[in-house]
Amino acid sequence: MLYHALVTDFLRGSPIIIDWFFVASGFLITTLLMDERKATETNDLRRFYQRRALRLFPAMYLMIFVSTLMIIFAINFVPAAQERLHTWWIEPLAAATYCYYIVAAFMPATLDGVLGHTWSLTVEEQFYFIWPLIFFAAMRLRRRSSDLKLIIGSVIFIVVVMSTRVIFQSEIVILGPDGVTFSDENDPTWQGIVYRLASARPDMIVYGCLLAFFIRSIPRPITAQWRRWIAIGGALGWIGFLGFIALGDRAPGFELFGGPMYQVCLLLLAPLILDLYLRQESLISRGLAHRHLQWLGQRSYGIYLWHIPVLYPFLALMDGVFGLKRLVLGLIGATLGVLAGIASYRFIEQPFLRIKDTRYKRPQDPQSTSSTPT
């Protein structure tokens, strides 16, 4: 949020935080599906989709509605925005149908960005829809080869998507003083379309799914030798994660999104999550489980939804402004974005969460390895 608010240029590598959430989402959802199958010998897909809808849709669609009103106001009263008069409807439609990153790949010049942050929600929601169907179909076969085929297919997908980012980066991306632009923005090429689709990092969610399968293969109880390897992997993961936040787009090979070292840092996210999940007694795991951070985590979805629409007017005011005034405007916008997210959780999300957790409760497996609510 501070990076989006233009408060600091230090966090240019912060997009890797979204990759962390992608890997964690793939891991947690796959773990929940595995736990449910272990407890009931099946998966209730209808209940799964009902729970996802109650968690995601209410706040999302209210935010899109408010943002659409902002867009309409801008094209009617802000001269610089009137060039979008004939295409303004594409952005809210792309967000509302969870197709934003697809539209951005094929028609990048038609999007203004007030709903640009919904690209990641598009990736997640498509995963929530498709992956349980694949998992359910594979588990229905009740064959060891089903797991193997899922794993092999996932590995191939990850390798192809990562390679695409690296190969097409130099051909498509232009790094300038105003950030990243595309050489084919006004006349999309097939290379540009494929690159932009790959830059949405759907491979990271699949990577999290693979991690869930891998964790099930670790012998229980976890031996001291396994714990040492997990701790070493976790340390490397944190080095890659924090290192990229500091060096992203600053050092050779660390370019967003096709830099080779960026891909290495992405691969190190799995051992990081593995360490947090299996060594919950570690200092970092205990720190992340602190009640204040849990409180913030519960509201993070709303904060993510609202921070860009709230920031947008401030970004317009900050255009051409530098120094202390720019910093103050950015901090005010970021603070209001956080407050909007907190209000979203209290007044919009919580009522639907109560319905989700009472009417559509998940079956609990007493021996489940999953301890994270979603």
From TrEMBL:
One of its GO terms (cellular component) is membrane. Pfam families: Acyl_transf_3. Keywords: Membrane, Transmembrane, Transmembrane helix. Residues 15-342 form the Acyltransferase domain. One of its GO terms (molecular function) is acyltransferase activity, transferring groups other than amino-acyl groups. One of its GO terms (biological process) is lipopolysaccharide biosynthetic process. The chain crosses the membrane at residues 16-35, 56-78, 148-168, 204-222, 229-248, 260-278, 301-322, 328-348. The keyword Membrane applies. InterPro entries: Acyl_transf_3_dom, Acyltransferase_3. The keyword Transmembrane applies. Coiled coil: none annotated. This is Unannotated protein. The lineage of its organism: unclassified sequences, metagenomes, ecological metagenomes.
